[in-house]
Amino acid sequence: MKDFLYTANPARVIFGAGKLSSVREEVEAIGSSRALVLCTRQQRKQAEQVAELLGSRLAGIHDGAEMHVPIEGARKARKLAAKLEADCAVAIGGGSTIGLGKAIALEAPIPIIAIPTTYAGSEMTPVYGLTEAGLKKTGKDARVLPRSVIYDPDLTMSLPVGMSLVSGMNAIAHAAEGLYAKDGNPVMSLMAEEGIRALAEGMQTLVETPENKDARARCLYGAWLCGTVLGHVGMALHHKLCHTLGGSFNLPHAETHTIVLPHALAYNSPAAPEAMERIAAAIGAPDAPTGLHRMAAQLGVPTALRDLGVKETDLDRACEIALANPYWNPRKVEAAPLRDLLQRAWEGAEPQP
Ligand code: NAD
Q1: Which fold has domain 13-156?
Q2: Whole-prediction pTM value?
Q3: In this structure, are strands 135-140 and 127-132 parallel, antiparallel, or unpaired?
């Protein structure tokens, strides 16, 4: 057995259908009395529901959350939080909205209560991202880790099935890479395997019966586990590729993860056989990369980068960017096999080591 170091991030998780109703209690429990509710314009209604539950604990609603947290938007939200004398942020939404809460907490250290409505997992990590002049910078700071997280599957009923599925694959990617992380440990591996299992089962039911509440709850439970893994151990080639492709070619976050995952796992499979066995067991397939590729096709999610508008002529540049400042990876990252990986991901072909 491998040696390991295990340090847990503090976490308070309230999970269950209808648990949104506990938001005021959570604000009071952290000693706050003026909550700024954050959301995107599309989720304004859900934010208004939160505002109503908060009653006299509400400082205001800000519906300016945007993908990748542009610095201008972060500055605007910080100003508003100061003007309203907010002493906590309640972020209801996906990774973009929770990211905006983190951007505020980074400057004015107010606690965040996160109410995730996708499976991206940002609520369980001390990682933040900010985009300035087209460049996304990420960092790690304990102050941005949400103090309390409310997982209410009822709030995910409105997430369209297509978005739910790609978001679920995004979550699976965190757990899959967590299984071969350099700083992995047995507890995170348990969470990762169980997270993948819950999401794979939940998504397969969801695609047939989108109104199935139990499947929605199972997916959100899986998302919590996978997000926890993301918050505790380092990611490798897959996340590097998605970061590179997403940032350089302005691709949608969850879809990019969905397409790249089977190929990145195939690349790493010779160097991480135990992780592959655990992923395969969790999805009920004989082989992890091929199993995930087939699962994606069966779920009807995107499987080819060309369908996201990436041009074949962009692949050489993508490969070069991915090779610059590579993350730690279980298998050495080399130009020729990496270029082959990108070609297969672009075509939507079966993954190969
Ligand atoms: P998102 O937050 O950008 O949401 C996408 C769209 O879906 C938005 O319009 C949102 O309002 C809408 N939406 C979300 N939940 C909904 C629901 N239940 N019903 C209807 N509409 C809903 O997407 P995401 O995939 O959750 O987050 C992606 C962003 O999060 C990226 O910028 C990524 O880099 C970041 N992220 C950060 C971390 C971290 O640890 N810092 C982790 C994962 C993702």
Answers
A1: Rossmann fold (3.40.50)
A2: 0.97
A3: antiparallel
For 140-167, write each residue's pLDDT tens digit: 999 999 999 999 999 999 999 999 999 9
- Write the pLDDT tens digit of every residue in 97-137: 999 999 999 999 899 999 999 999 999 999 999 988 877 78
| CA distances from residue 56 to 11, 24, 34, 78, 111 in whole angstroms, order as listed | 26, 9, 8, 21, 18
Nearest-CA residue for atom 27 of ligand 1: 95
Nearest-atom index, ligand 1, CA of 40: 11
Which residue, among 127, 147, 136, has the nearest Cα to 32 in the 3D structure? 147
CA distance 76 to 58: 19
CATH of 161-347, one of 1.10.3720.10, 2.60.40.1510, 1.20.1090.10, 3.40.50.300: 1.20.1090.10
Q: How far, in Å, CA of 294 to CA of 161, rounded? A: 18
The two structure tokens encoding residue 337: 């096999």
Ligand 1: residue of 20, 37, 40 to mutate (most ligand atoms within 8 A of CB) is 40
Nearest CA-CA partner of 280 in 352, 197, 222:
197
d(CA 106, CA 93): 19
DSSP track, 308-346: GT--GGGHHHHHHHHHSSPPP-SS---HHHHHHHHHHHH
Q: Which residue has the tokens 């790690």?
A: 140
Ligand 1 atom, smallest distance to 129 CA: 41
Q: For the chain, how far is it from start to end, CA to CA, in angstroms?
A: 26
CB of 167 closer than 6 A to ligand 1?
A: yes
- Kindly list the domain boundaries of the chain, sorted by start residue: 13-156, 161-347
* Per-residue exposure over 113-130, b if at least 16 CB sit within 10 Å of its own CB, e if not: bbbbbbbbbbbbbbbbbb
